[in-house]
Design a protein that fits this description.
alpha+beta; Bacterial Protein-export protein SecB; 4-stranded antiparallel beta sheet; 2 helices; elongated
Length: about 140
């Protein structure tokens, strides 16, 4: 039985890498295993006048890399731009924040993978995350 596809009430327009900084630890001493250390923060802004939303993901991989003997530090700020169709209320804003973050996160993962692979280091692929739980904990 065919089901009608219901379009989303918001549209992913584009993303921009707003900031990116990659720095190699020249004093890195290889150890057996390196535990992945990354932090991910989000910011969400809605402009009700033009029915647009911005989701900003800020990720830092291996913060304190020199002190903790990590191979590098990578800081990224990625901005996703979304168009909203319909009224903006608190429930809709929360839904957009969760879904928008889930849409944007794979672009962040791909960018990190690309940057690390092009640096001459082993390719780093961030694990998938439970976006809803992550946002609840922020």
């Amino acid at each position: 039985m065919e089901k009608e596809i219901v379009p989303s009430s918001f549209t992913f327009d584009e993303y921009i890498i707003n900031k990116s900084n990659f720095e190699v630890n020249q004093d890195f001493m290889q150890t057996d295993n390196i535990n992945l250390d990354f932090k991910l923060n989000t910011d969400f802004q809605v402009n009700e006048e033009n029915d647009r939303a911005l989701i900003i993901l800020i990720c830092e991989v291996f913060n304190g890399f020199k002190e903790k003997n990590y191979p590098f530090n990578l800081y990224i700020e990625i901005v996703g731009k979304f168009s909203l169709n319909g009224e903006v209320d608190v429930e809709f804003a929360n839904l957009c924040k969760v879904n928008g973050t889930a849409i944007l996160f794979p672009y962040l993962r791909a960018y990190i993978s690309f940057v690390t692979s092009m640096s001459g280091m082993p390719n780093l692929i961030l694990p998938t995350v439970n976006v809803l739980k992550m946002l609840e904990e922020q």
